[in-house]
Design the sequence.
């Protein structure tokens, strides 16, 4: 339920946590791949999109073809319009104007976001990436301290600086690839 004074971007910081979506409903939302793709696509958009644009994007994701086959686009369009968007709209995860056929992310999307792990384009999560990078950095620093030939020549400070720079560049890349989501949160 959207409260009075809710921001148009759908993320109102003053919302009562007691009124968040129940965990069972979130799992029900995430059980369907089209609903997940709907949320993911809308998070990356800068505003309202049409149902047709959304159905084409999801059909392209499902088929791996651009443009996707017409029968798949129609199937996705109908399932979104008749089933998935009304479900997400009733939970205030998306706002779906059935008459104008416009869709945008809504106030409870953040509740669902907490359960959706962000995955890089290479198939690993950002958490796995940063954890691996941190472990590699730790081993490199320890190796430079115990005298591994190439790393001891570089020095601990240089090894540490290289990994800190790599982490910084990674963070900037992640922020850039999800910039619409973060801009929406700031507005």
Sequence:
């Amino acid at each position: 339920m959207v409260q009075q004074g809710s921001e148009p971007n759908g993320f109102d910081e003053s919302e009562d946590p007691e009124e968040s979506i129940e965990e069972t409903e979130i799992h029900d939302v995430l059980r369907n791949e089209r609903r997940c793709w709907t949320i993911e696509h809308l998070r990356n958009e800068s505003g309202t999109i049409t149902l047709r644009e959304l159905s084409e994007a999801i059909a392209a994701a499902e088929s791996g073809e651009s443009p996707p086959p017409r029968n798949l686009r129609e199937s996705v369009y109908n399932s979104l319009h008749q089933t998935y968007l009304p479900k997400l709209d009733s939970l205030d995860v998306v706002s779906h104007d059935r008459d104008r056929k416009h869709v945008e992310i809504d106030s409870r999307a953040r509740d669902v976001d907490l359960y959706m792990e962000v995955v890089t384009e290479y198939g690993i999560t950002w958490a796995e990436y940063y954890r691996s990078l941190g472990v590699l950095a730790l081993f490199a620093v320890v190796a430079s301290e115990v005298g591994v030939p190439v790393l001891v020549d570089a020095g601990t400070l240089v090894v540490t600086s290289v990994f800190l720079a790599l982490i910084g560049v990674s963070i900037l890349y992640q922020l850039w690839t999800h910039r619409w989501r973060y801009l929406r949160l700031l507005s």
